[in-house]
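Can't paste images in this forum, so I'm doing it all in text. The chain is below; anyone willing to post the predicted structure tokens underneath?
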Amino acid sequence: MSDTVLRQLAELPALSIGELRGRWRSLYGTEPPGSYKSQYLIRRLAWRIQELAFGGLSEGAKATLKQVADEDAATARRPSSRKREMNLPVAGTRLIRDWNGERHEVLVTRDGFDYQGRRYRSLSAVAKAITGAHRSGPAFFGLKASGKETE
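Text version of the structure:
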């Protein structure tokens, strides 16, 4: 990096919020966002300084980001289901549980679980298929603590 870019980046954390807002106006040519804290402004200003000095993202990178964003928007689910999925392992993970002397293996997929060639929407449904009784799937597979001991 050039000496002047490094110098500009190094001085950003020492600037007051008013000075950061002034720097924003000069680098972006717009008013800074109203309620953001200085750490946000510093990161955005650091990006802009480097972007002006060395260039921004390539057209290929921009196209890739747009494609990923479009795919995410197309497959987005309701917020409530997104919260439930956050505690589950990533797709491709294999969950293994020994139950009554048998080994049971479940593959986590992008939209559910695969067990013995069948697709299940929830880990609890898999646990019920294995045990014959309703159980917490995440607790059964050791992903969270359960209130009572599993056999």
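The first helix runs from residue 3 to 11. Residues 73 and 144 are 30 Å apart (CA to CA).
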